[in-house]
Amino acid sequence: MAKAKRKKKKPLALVALGGNVLIQLGQRGTIGEQELNALEIVQRLVTMVKLNYNLVITHGNGPQVGNMLIRTEAARKTVPVQPLDICVAWTQGSMGYLLQNALLNEFWKQEMHDKRVLTMITEVLVDRKDPAFKKPTKPVGPFVTKARANELMKTGIKMVEVAGRGWRRVVPSPKPQRVIQRRTIRELALSGKIIIAAGGGGISVYTKPNGEWEGIDAVIDKDLASAWLAKEIGADVFIILTDVGQVYLNYDKPSAYGVERMTTHEAKKYIREGHFAPGSMLPKIQATINYLSGGGKRVIITRAGLLEAALEGRAGTHIVPRKEDKKWPTGTIRISSRLKSSKRKK
Amino acid sequence: MAKAKRKKKKPLALVALGGNVLIQLGQRGTIGEQELNALEIVQRLVTMVKLNYNLVITHGNGPQVGNMLIRTEAARKTVPVQPLDICVAWTQGSMGYLLQNALLNEFWKQEMHDKRVLTMITEVLVDRKDPAFKKPTKPVGPFVTKARANELMKTGIKMVEVAGRGWRRVVPSPKPQRVIQRRTIRELALSGKIIIAAGGGGISVYTKPNGEWEGIDAVIDKDLASAWLAKEIGADVFIILTDVGQVYLNYDKPSAYGVERMTTHEAKKYIREGHFAPGSMLPKIQATINYLSGGGKRVIITRAGLLEAALEGRAGTHIVPRKEDKKWPTGTIRISSRLKSSKRKK
Q1: Distance (Å, whole) CA B311 – CA B313
Q2: Is B8 exposed, middle or buried, given 0-12, 13-18 or 19+ CB atoms closer than 10 A?
Q3: What is the pTM of this model?
Q4: Which of A4, A49, B80, B101 is deepest in the core (most CB within 10 A)?
Q5: Mean pLDDT, to the nearest integer, of A212-225?
Q6: What is the pLDDT of residues A3-46, one digit of tens each?
Q7: Contact list, A196 vs chain B (CB under 8 Å)
Q8: Superfamily designation of domain A12-338
Q9: Is A284 among the catalytic positions?
Q10: Which of these, A309, A303, A311, A272, lies nearest to A289 by C-alpha position?
């Protein structure tokens, strides 16, 4: 196809929603809360569709998977406990449903009747030899008593004590290697369907010695999985929505400031300098670097409320591959602690 | 398109798997059990793909949704109980995952590398004025004590006492009106993708006065929902897999006999004569009649192990619309209590 023609194609965006998208901090996670939260986020997403983006949506599932582990733990004497691949699959079902239904309602209200939305149950391949399996570090689920922790540890489950709160399970969080459903996701997204996929970082499967895929008791970081997916489907922009409007250096210190633009090179430097918290901004920056190093074009990190402004270059942190440096007229970083000070145009 | 050309198209089959497909009677539902069961059923389904069918797969979720209700009940003091639409969405996620992964493995083993499998989270529209909402009758979930039943009844939940076993929740099981995702399911199935959809009868939603869809605390019979979907996607054959090889008249009596063929007219007569048990064969026959009256072509009811034989006309009960009667040479029903007595060819 001629290049001129390709340029007219709709850009493909992958938007990774935060883990708290449907159960916000401090909420218990009633259905009413989740439906309201879904309504709020989908208004932002529909705006993107109106701006002519093809859209793949991924999402975290921290609170949901935590609640699921509390439920399975509470009922463990009656019904079998299920591994984490199943727990993630559960949350893909319920969160996908709430998001897709809210999207369908919003499209209907805005008379965008031709839009289709599709939640795809998504598996992500991991390596059985990933060091994460030898050293599980990701805390999940409920706090339990020492007695119960001892019981669990006898079955091979790793638990850590959190001072003053009890014992908590830690699980392996291996690196994603491939999104099994990547081709279908790409094909359907390019056909204009809105795809909800890879919820909770995807259902972790590994390749058995006989070549089959089998579920494995692990969780995958959703930003890393989303980055892989963004790369694999050739997304034109990878957007990570989180609680903050920008990436901050010296976060939570008096000297904190937000970053408007940076390159992967700078991002790596900031990682080395310890600017980003593990389990919070760090995986997002790592995901960003992975995506951009693998041929990705542009990453935006911002909060949902600023999505439209960020797409217009007026908000958020924009990260590009190193080679893009020269396109920026003055220096490589522009820093603003206040959005309105930004002078960048579209 | 010319009729001659259309005839060459792959036939589209909708196969409804039984509620016990992944957790069989007497099993507790460990992940190991479910994976083994998935392996068994997908071998039958892959055979259908080899026989050149396009395939939509639906499934029941009785044991899974029951286990989910036990879990949510056990943890109710810690995490919010969720309505049945969410419970069904959970099971669509986990069962879809197990089935799709097993299918992918089987395709891989059989070197059918081009086959794609897709689990779609599926919503089904019901009518808020369906009489089922006034008179919930479908028993779901765990048995509870009288004290707990009283508590639940105060919150508006309907409970019934089952002699000797305690109290159990009964929920509305309204009739399906439309499968929201029907167009996408049809489009993707016709493109050769294997689609897993409408698990557990679909996630029940209704239309609010303002026109939006919202989840509702109900379950939909999976055979009825599957019949709707089969009709809506124009399936060439609707296959209901269950525990018995054929539909029986005088079931469980010494005079029981299996039905090889019947028409919708005969099926209605047998319903009137009380041959089919509510909650068991009756909804399957009703689903059959719905599908065939709505333009459907052919229904097969059999058990998974006989699927291939049934497709070749050597097993199962075959049901066709009344107008097909004349195509059968002698009478309208052929009865055989033993499959090998069948003389029918392909």
Answers
A1: 5
A2: exposed
A3: 0.91
A4: B101
A5: 97
A6: 455 556 899 999 999 989 999 989 999 999 999 999 999 999 99
A7: 121
A8: Acetylglutamate kinase-like (3.40.1160.10)
A9: yes
A10: A272
